[in-house]
Fold this protein.
Amino acid sequence: MMKVLERFFNYVKFDTQSKSDVDDYPSTAKQFDLLNFLKKELDELGIKNELDEYGYLIGRIDSNIDKDVPKLALIAHVDTSPDASGKDVKARVIENYDGSNIILNEEHNVILKPSVFPSLKNNIGQDLVVTDGTTLLGADDKLGVAEIMTIVEYITNNPEYKHGEIVILFTPDEEVGNGTKFIDMKKLNADFGYTLDGGTVGEIAYENFNAAGARVTIHGKSVHPGSAKDKMIHSVNVAYEFDHLLPEEKRPQHTENYEGFNHLITINGSVEKTQLIYIIRNHDRDLFEEQKEEFINASELINKKYGDQSCILEIQDQYFNMNEILKDYKYVVDIAINSIKEEDVEPIIEPIRGGTDGARLTYLGLPCPNLGTGGYNYHGPYEYASIQEMNKAVEIVKRIITKTTEL
Ligand SMILES: [Zn+2]
């Protein structure tokens, strides 16, 4: 039986960094190196599987009980963030961590400090996996991949362990927001699932933002500045006016927890034309709709003042809070929370101030919260993972599988 850690070390050797703004899918062909490796591992374990042209690897384990129970999907992504290199990762283990600073890279003075990353204080006495300070670690989400593969091997080696039908899904391009773009839900054919793509073990996330994007185009009137009096309409000034019509307390720098925000991402323009790009976020659907209403009101006011068509507003919904659907599938959250508690871990339930592939899958018909894997500080050289927590995460999912047989 291969340990989670061994698998994890094998997987981080593959550079699977994804890339934004490219037409290819998956965004980088090198993601197939790991996907093919995983396919081979599934083959060797005797698991039916299929890797498609888009980079979705789906494995399927038949039920070994007589009862009909919901089909469970376990999901992780193989790509790593474009924010930091994932090439030549040199992972190493700090045994029995004593709470002091960890020098990741002497030459470049990269130090993992509990004063900067207080989560380290909860890892005292544990064995930690860290980087050499020049790359990310890849715990996001190769830890999820390693944990799932460990469970698959356990199921294969322990025929007396009871389980319903289990579907394994490894996806590409999660980090560039396209992890579910070409997923074939019919082929996936599962009833509920979990993404193993969280932070500390015990974390369960089933609430995320409702999300929309807004593009505001302001048309001004250009006149020679020498003779502009009462004639020129400067679209940049009107754009500022538009922005000030939105509530200031709803800017990201003033919000936390369940508070939604409107975030001005870019503003670009000159006298004739200015464009503002916003994202709109709120966990609560009604408040989310209200925020969109505020954009509509602001654009109407601008048009009233400067003439029709001086402000063109386009709003596009991006994704929705998965809890709106999950609240009708209470068992999905409940069996996870109970499994966490039975492993003597305190469940950590916090709203995600972002989106997840689980949210998109939930809206595609697969209720899918996200579970912690035992990794920290994702997307950079300070990323680390706890070996005790990764083993716990495996035990928690084993319990979830057992509870599924009782549904
Ligand atoms: Zn991730």
Notes: The mean pLDDT is 96. Residues 3 and 150 are 7 Å apart (CA to CA). Residues 77, 140-141, 174, 197 surround zinc ion (CB under 6 Å).
